[in-house]
Amino acid sequence: MTRIALIGSLATTKLNPKDADMLVTIADDADLTLLAAHGRKLLGHGQSRNCGGEVFLANPHGVYLGTVIPPRRVMTSWRP
């Protein structure tokens, strides 16, 4: 990792921010295993308080790469 920035409502003056979003700038060859584990913990802690949290990734040139934790797939139907 080369840089971490706190973004979103937690970085504002809101009294009750609803989520903790972070932008992490990473090297092209970064191992994301540990960062993904911490991202899941952040999300879990947020959800336990009816809030959220997400870790967004960018490369050293400022290009958005995605998130550490992919979005959940919405299940449209369930069959036993």
Number of structurally distinct domains = 1
Instruction: Bin the helical content.
Output: 10-25%
Strand order of the largest sheet: 1-2-3-4
Main beta-sheet annotation: 4 strands, mixed
**Structural class based on helices, strands and sheet pairing:** alpha+beta
**Strand-residue proportion:** 25-35%
Overall pLDDT metric: 80
The gyration radius over C-alpha positions equals: 15 Å
* Helix-strand pattern: EEHEE
Number of helices: 1
Instruction: Give the low-pLDDT segments.
Output: none
Q: Could you explain the architecture of this structure?
A:
The chain is of the alpha+beta class and 80 residues long. The protein has one domain (3-67). The protein is built from 1 helix and 4 strands, in the order ββαββ. It has one helix at 33-47; strands at 3-7, 19-25, 52-58, 64-67. A 4-stranded mixed sheet has the order 1-2-3-4, covered by helices on one side. The chain is globular. 12% of the residues are buried.
Write a brief structural summary:
This protein is of the alpha+beta class and 80 residues long. It has 1 helix and 4 strands.
Secondary structure blueprint with pairings:
Elements: E1 3-7, E2 19-25, H1 33-47, E3 52-58, E4 64-67
Parallel strand pairs: 2-3
Antiparallel strand pairs: 1-2, 3-4
